[in-house]
Specification:
Helix content: 55-70%
Structural class: mainly alpha
Largest sheet: none
Shape: elongated
Radius of gyration: 16 Å
Distance between the termini: 36 Å
Number of helices: 7
Mean pLDDT: 93
Strand content: under 5%
């Protein structure tokens, strides 16, 4: 999934990739979002524990995409202009994605349904 942001040109045949657009110096230095794949999943698990969310993890694609968009837009060239992403920034992007609110709401709904 993250690899797509590193390799999908926009516009086509322009030489510009999403990662390069938002983090041009880091991209030129060889940094790629793909390198965060395992750590990002681990952060979702960590945040679930932090908020006391138990049970089987279900990670809808919309929250992954929202997380990536948050990271790019908030911390990239059009936002805070960070050189590259840190784990704390990814964690903030997850929290802003709405994932935690959704999981808490679903847990409450399941309890009321029993």
């Amino acid at each position: 999934m993250l690899q797509s942001y590193d390799e999908a040109e926009s516009p086509v045949d322009s030489g510009w990739f999403f990662t390069r657009y938002f983090f041009p110096d880091a991209f030129d230095a060889g940094n790629r979002l793909e390198g965060f794949a395992n750590d990002l999943f681990s952060l979702f698990l960590e945040i679930r524990q932090e908020f006391g969310i138990k049970g089987k993890i279900e990670l809808p694609m919309e929250f992954i995409v929202f997380t990536i968009e948050n990271a790019l837009k908030i911390f990239g060239a059009n936002g805070q202009m960070r050189e590259w992403l840190s784990m704390d920034q990814w964690k903030e992007a997850i929290k802003r994605s709405g994932y935690i609110d959704s999981e808490i709401f679903m847990a409450i709904a399941k309890r009321k349904g029993t």
